Amino acid sequence: MAEENVLFHHALRLGDDALILGQRLSKWCGHAPMLEIDLALANIALDLLGQGTLFLGLAGEIEGRGRDADALAFHRDVLDFRNCLLVEQPNGDFAQTMARQFLFSNWHELLMREIAAAPDARLSAIGQKAVKEITYHARFASEWVVRLGDGTEESRTRMIAGLEWMWRFVDELFDAKDGAPSLRAEWDARIARPLREAGLELPKPRRGILGGRVGHHSEHLGHLLCEMQFLPRTYPGAVW
Amino acid sequence: MSKEWPLWEVFVRAKNGLSHRHVGSVHAADAKMAIEAARDTYTRRMEGISLWVVPSASITASDPGEAEALFAPAADKVYRHPTFYTIPEHIKNI
Fold it and tell me: Which of A107, A167, A210, B87 is most buried, by CB atoms within 10 Å?
C-alpha cells in the first residue's frame, strides 16, 4: 500500500509538471512573434498535455478511486497540485518563456530517460514516448537561448532577465526529498554549453524557492487553474 | 536587421524511395531554425521522414512572361508520349 502511494505521488508530480507547463504554453497560441513559432509552441504544449494526460491517467489508475486524468486535472484545487514552481511561472516575453523551457526541458529530458528505464512497465512506457518529444523541446529551447543571448542587445537583455526570473525555481527540481538530486551534475553540464555559446553567464546563486511539491504554490497557479478548470466545473460532464 | 526573417522553401520526403517534394515555405533566421519550423509546420501528421530547406532566394524561377516560348512548343509533340505508339500484337511485355 505504501509503495502504491509512492507511485501515485510520483505519477501525479510528473503529470502536473507536464499539464501545467502545457497549459502555460498554450497561452502563446495566436500570440507568438511569428506563425512558425506559434505552431512550434503549440506543438510543444500539445506534447506536454499528452504526457500530462498519460501520467495523470496512470495516477488515477494506481489510486483506484475512480478518478481519471480529467478528474485529476479539472477537479482538484490549487493546494492539491504537485507541479514544481518553475512550470507555473508566467510566460512573460518570449525570452522568459524560452528561459523557462530551457531550464525545464533539459531537466525533463534527463528525468524522462530515467523514467523510461523504470521498473514499473506503465511508467516506463510513458517515459519512452515522452523522451523523444522532450529531446526536441530541449533542443528548440537551447537554440533559442543561444539565438537570443547572442543576438541583439535587446534580445540579450531580455534573455538575461528571463533566466534571472526563472533561476530561483531550479533548486526545487533537484531537491533531495521530491526532486532528482542525482541529475544535477549532468544538468549543470548540459545547460552550460548553450549558455557558453550564447556568451551568457549563469545567474548568480540565490536561495532556491521550494514548495510546489507539497502544494505551496505561487499566486500564478490559481489564476491558471481558474481558466483551465472553468468550463468543466461550470458545465460538469460537458463533452465536445 | 530587416523585420521579416528570410523565406525558405520546404521539401518533404514521404518515405524511403520517394523523392523530396515541395510542400511550402517557412520564415526562419537560419537553416537550423528553418528545419525546425518546417518540422513543426509540415510534418505534424506523419507526412515525412526527411526534410530539406532551401533559401527561397537561391531559387531561379522561369519567367511567366516567357511561358509561351518555353512550354507551348511541347503541345503538338504528341509523339513524345509513349502512348502515341501502337504496340504490335505479338509484343507481350514492354
Answer: A107
**Predicted model pTM:** 0.89
Task: Please count the residues of chain B.
Answer: 94
Q: How many domains does chain B have?
A: 1
Nearest chain A residue (CA) to B25: A36
Residue B44 is nearest to which of A34, A43, A152, comparing CB atoms? A43
- List, in order, residues 6 or more apart from A177 with CB less than 8 Å away: A213
Rounded to an integer, what distance in angstroms lies between the CA atom of residue B45 and that of residue B41? 10
Residue A230's H or E segment, with its range, is helix A219-234
Lowest mean pLDDT across A6-15, A181-190, B84-93:
B84-93
Would residue B2 count as lying in a domain?
A: no
B38: containing domain:
7-84
Q: Is B50 in CB contact (< 8 Å) with chain A? A: no
Residue among A34, A40, A152 minimizing CB distance to B36: A40
Q: Which domains does chain A have, with CATH numbers?
A: 2-234 (1.20.1260.10)
B1 touches chain A (CB under 8 A): yes
d(CA A200, CA A99): 12
pLDDT tens profile B2-55 = 568 999 999 999 999 999 999 999 999 999 999 999 999 999 898 999 999 999
Residues of B in contact with A35 (CB under 8 A): 27, 41
Report which of A220, A177, A211, A16 is spatially closest to residue A104, judged by C-alpha positions: A16
Confidence of residue A54 (pLDDT cuts 50, 70, 90): very high
Look up the ipTM and state it.
0.75
Q: Which of B1, B32, B41 sits opposite A143 (nearest CB)?
A: B32
Q: Is residue B1 part of a domain?
A: no
